[in-house]
Amino acid sequence: MSNNKNPKNSKKAAGVDMTVGNPTRLIIYFALPLLAGNILQQLYNMVDSMVVGNFAVRGTDALAAVGTTFPVIFMIISLFMGVGQGATIKISQYYGANDMDGLKRTVDTIYIFLFAVSIPIALVGILISKPMLRLMNVPEGILPMATTYMRIIFLGTLASFGYNINSGILQGLGDSRKPLLFLAISTIINIILDLVFVIVFHWDVAGVAWATILAQLFSFLYSIHYINSRGGFFRISYKNLEFDWGILKESIRIGLPAGIQNLLFSLASITLQGLINGYGEKFIAGYNGANKIDAFAFLPLVSFSVAVTTYVGQNVGARRMDRVNRGVKSALLLSTVISIVLAVVLLPSAGILMRLFTQDHEVIQAGVEYLYRVLPFYMMLGAIFILNGALRGAGEAFVPMVGSLISMWLARVPAAYILARYFGGSNLYFSYPIGWFMGILIVIVYYLKGPWKRKAIERLEVKGTT
Q: Helices 281-317 and 451-463, interaxial angle, to 10°?
């Protein structure tokens, strides 16, 4: 990566400086493009499900097959993408401190690391696809389709990593708008290829998988072109890359707990998916269709969480701890209001939304029962994500990981099995709010006690960040 000779270029030229100005406006300004981008990202999975559910030869089975693979795919890549998230936080901190040399070395280092691990991850994913699906109790009727879909998706690991790296770089600089452009282009390509591969070529689940990875590859290549043509203080090149072990270790320290948290989430999801799979194809299809709707509802909370992470990272780097508290309070209020609006709007229309995926009455009913048991409790989920995002932005990722561990494995998973056994399959979904309640108790106590603030400043002083 060749760098410009002037490392102290204006921060304004690089992205959005979140160390000055109204915190609420800055968070909203940053979060809205993220929200639009996340909607487009979910449109990937939703369109895949809608196309195979309505146009594949065995629509209900194809819908179940596509949805049941997600926990395994996410489990394989989550640990390593956590390190990428840690590097994004380091970028935001260096940016807030106006340390452009440290920022450029971070970009170089994370590119070398993630490209080095992407090929092994793809190979491992392809090899374990079928055994993992069998462990999840996937019905034999949809196992071949699920295996095909998963293996093709793993072939695109390099493109997926590359796109996420470039989006993370720009988000760390406070630019959440250009990643939206990359994703918009990719989503349009994905939709077109979905329709062509499934309706015209009749490739069914293989078609939507190939559409996904080809669209991601284009988005990755286009994002490289944009970054290199924008005239900033670094360019993406595979010559003269500078690897910094110290930055990698710090990125791992920050990002590994998030990766472990994602891994634990994935393992818990696989465990729950195995429980759900025991209720048959229609129940699986209903769950997976409703899960896509739930994922859309979840997007505003994720977007504000990422915005808070960047906001806190920049302000910690600038040692503006007073602004950190103001921004987190604003984000908590925003997430609460949004959670209430989501429940009011989506609950009455749950049945109509499920018909986007299938016309099968049993599948629709299974999906509606999921949404009724999850959406009313979104306020707790929003608070967890905002506080976890704030702590990660300050470089404190261990407590969010512990909270996730307890929420998922000591609360949600046991509750799901107990509820399913004594109250029926549909009521296992009450395990979600039970887990969220446990998680929020842990993170809110640690946030209010405040030792993370002192640790953040101490780490900056040790690293010599100015």
A: 60
Residue 208 lies in a domain: yes
pLDDT at residue 304 is higher than 60: yes
Do the domain assignments include residue 5? no
The answer to whether position 6 is within a domain reads no
For the cut 90, the answer to whether the pLDDT of residue 168 exceeds it is: no
In a domain? residue 1: no
CB contact at 8 A, 256 and 81: no
The rounded distance, in Å, linking the Cα atoms of 404 and 343 is 24
Whole-angstrom Cα distance, residue 268 to residue 233? 42
E strand or H helix that includes residue 163: helix 157-172
Q: With bands split at pLDDT 50, 70 and 90, how would you rate the model's confidence at 365?
A: very high
State which residues form the domain around 365: 11-463
**pTM for the model:** 0.68
- Residue 11 CA to residue 25 CA, distance in Å, equals 19
Determine contact, residues 447/387, Cβ cutoff 8 Å.
Answer: yes
Which ranges in 230-377 belong to alpha helices (H)?
245-277, 281-317, 321-346, 350-354, 361-374
The total of structural domains in the chain comes to: 1
Backbone φ and ψ for 234, nearest 5 degrees, come out as -150, 155
291: helix, strand or coil: helix
